Amino acid sequence: MIKQANLPATWALQYDALINSRYEKLFKEQLEPHDEIAAWWEIPQPLAEKAGLKWRGRHEWDSTANVGFSPGYTPAERRKLVDIYMADFQAIFGYYPRTVGSWYIDEVTLAYMAKRYHIVASCNCKDRVGTDGYTLWGGYWNQAYYPSRLNAYMPAQTKASQIDVPIFRMLGSDPIYQYGNSPGMFTLEPVYPDAGGSADWVTWFMNNLIHQPALAFGYAQAGQENSFGWEAMKTGLTLQVALLAKQAGAGEIQVKTLAQTGLWFRRYYSLTPPTSVIALDDWKHENRKTVWYDSRFYRVNFLWENGAFFIRDLHRFDENMVSPTHDTALTTTSLSYGTLPIMDGALWSGTEKAGIRPVLLSPNGEPLPMFPDGPPVVKKLNPTDLSILQPLRGGGSFSIVCGETNVAFTGMDGPGRPLYWALNLIGGVQQKSAVQTVTQNAVVYHFTGVNYSLRIFPDMGFCQQLGNGVIRLTPNSSGKLVVILGGF
Predict the structure, then answer these.
(1) Is pTM, for the whole model, over 0.85?
(2) Cβ-count burial of 350 within 10 angstroms (0-12 exposed, 13-18 middle, 19+ buried)?
(3) pLDDT tens digits, residue range 458-470?
(4) 3-state secondary structure of 162
């Protein structure tokens, strides 16, 4: 089907498929010159045993995190596994694979593959909470990033501390509904009938990808792991290939292999660029909208629902945060990697939904809802900055400018007339546990052994702890508040 559409594809082989002569014959006889054969980095029994390691799995392939994935092995064992795979790949195909993918690959493995075998790109799973016993949470939303040498899930901030292999996030997450542990799977994977298997959803997803501002570049990974079987994927995959071929023919998208995409990324970006993922219409017709902004310093998500808008998610990135499995093997049967939460609408919500909510203030400081009046206007200001302008009910507007290291908020009632407004951070017991101190110009956090902060730009607002557990950020007298999230 892909050959008929004349599209290039990346075929990633797990070791047991690599050494299966039927796959070798298939790929040598049938693949087009523009296709790519890559490595899929889960660890089955034949690879472990050929590397001289005792197999700890229940079956020949075991999805248990410390058996089937690279963090389950010591750094020395990880490098040995790489050597065995690469030697056998080279013996079969005459070269080394240029890219490697997995649900998750640790930084020791990636750095070794880059240095010794010169891979040019990698890919890992979308953000998810608890799916299959794996949690990846708070990372660079979709698109791609250069990882820290100490933590493959953490975007690096500096050239010196990054592995020069971009990691692309897989599976095409729905920017509205594929968040946290929300019920259902809403991704571009063809096996999900309400998402990647639905012509309406796929058209909606691709239209937003193509037509909304993405800053540096827009990207999605299409395809499916073959273990689902043809019957489960045929409807979605057939409609997706036809649509992608049509859009590629019209010049709306480019379809590339992972290696081609990685080389393109490395040529244009020496550091992780800011990007955005935006959906201003709702395929469920429930009037939700969302804007994601990512840089190498932080990610932030704005959500519109139930006649209001707020920050659903804000995580900071720190290249000095060491992965829990950097030096030692994972011993638990599940894996969990995260970044540094300022606000976590998925994991911090209880009876009250967690979020950073813009509010109007009465003369005595009581919060009043800030209601939008019509849709937001979202624009790319320059290669790194994204502007969101929200008209307000009753007049005035609320402006948000996301930049690489900071977010600026401005509330105005008219020309030269600032609104009396604030941001309320509502995160329940988890916020109380993470926050250490609140000063006039900073909120200081401690999470998973790491200290970090949200800071206010001098003379651009102030912080205060309210008695009900809410943290309030108040703008200066001109109605402007600037929050610093990187570059210091």
Answers:
(1) yes
(2) exposed
(3) 999 999 999 889 9
(4) strand
Q: Which two tokens stand for residue 174?
A: 């729905």
Q: Strand, coil or helix: what is 464?
A: strand
Q: How far apart are CA 73 and CA 61, in angstroms?
A: 15
Q: With 0-12 CB in 10 A as exposed, 13-18 as middle and 19+ as buried, what is 344?
A: buried
- DSSP letter at 71 equals G
Phi, psi for residue 452 in degrees, rounded to 5: -160, 175
Domains and CATH numbers, the chain: 2-270 (3.20.20.510), 276-484 (2.70.98)
What was the pLDDT predicted at 466? 95
CA angle, residues 417, 420, 424, in degrees to nearest 5: 145
What does the block give as tokens for 204? Answer: 């909606």
The residue type found at 317 is: F
Looking at residue 243, its amino acid is L
φ/ψ region of 298 (left if φ > 0, alpha if ψ in -120 to 50, else beta) reads beta
> What is the sign of the dihedral through the CA atoms of 240, 241, 247 and 253?
positive
- Helix, strand, coil percentages for the chain (3-state, nearest 5): 25, 30, 45
CA angle in degrees (0–180, nearest 5) for 85-89-95: 130
Q: How many CA atoms lie within 13 A of 448 on its CB side?
A: 12
